[in-house]
Amino acid sequence: MGKNDDNQPGVSDEEWARFMEQAAQGAGGAPKEPSARARMVTERLRATQGQEPPGWRTGPAWRERRRPGRLGAVAAVVAIAGLALIAVRPELVIDRLTGRAEAREDARKAGPLAAETDRPTAPPPSVDPDRPTLQDPFRGSPALQWADGAAGIELPEATAVGGVSKEKIAETLQNAKAFLVAANLDPAVLKGERPEAALALLDPKNTEASEHLEKSLAQPGRDQDPMNLFTRYNPAEVKPVGEVVKVRGRMWVEAGKEQGQADVRLDYSFVYPLVKAAPGADQVERTIVRREITFTVADPRKWQVTAGRLRLSDHRVDLANSACEVYDGYLHPGFDADPAAGPTPSGPPKDPYDRSKGIDEGAPEGCGTVSRT
After folding, report:
1. Quick check: 36 pLDDT over 70?
2. Count of domains forming the chain
């Protein structure tokens, strides 16, 4: 494009484009540069004008004057980037539209639950059924607000019960917590190693229980399953996601069947996030283990007991999301890629987070189903 004597464009882009179009069609002539007189008049008018609106030539106002199509091009780039993001991470848009992202943020901000001091009257409220991830394995679970590990096992205040001294009750409460930690939270035990610390806390004079546990560890089976007291998984099959196991429950003391006895009762749920041990596996599944255990404290002057040890009187277990009819001493959570095997789960779904009922209350026979994990 030509320029005038002041090195200013003499012909606008629109005029030049019109000329080129006419030239291509064989019509019209080239637009002429302004004459010297015309340029002088223009400069004089510019010098004498003083009524232009303030800011008309300011930076922001000038920057707002974009070439036609620039804004559309920017919008197109943003739109293309958005479509690419949706293709790669569709859950980001879906979560925003469904309100799941907001629910997830609310769950993160919610504080931990107060300690459970009595049996709940209802199951935990429903939460958004969000899928767990390697970065957030408790997402979409009521356990998100449960305590981490041993912090979830809080001891009640010790008092004399059933003719058993306060000191003896306090000692048993401490040992009972140590047993739960050793049997359900010790990383080595979870990987299938022998639960030496837990076994060492049990009274050897309770020979029937001791012999049964030894058989269950040596030769697991339907009638002697170590999973009845110890949580274990096969490290060749699955591995934990992170180091946290969520725990919720309570411990209390009742008078025993006879004078000079007291029962320390335990009711705890443990939530384990697991992933297949295969390289690159990223589907997280949770298994919930609930245990009800009773240890009897007895006056050694009247009963055959070992001081400082736990006498196992009763125990029950509920395993949620573990293969039915498999008694090899390990948890076996189900994953989407697993082939169907074993009996088909049936019966009304059971909420494994519902602690308002005992394990035996309304328990389905055979292989049941769970409403959530």
Report:
1. no
2. 1
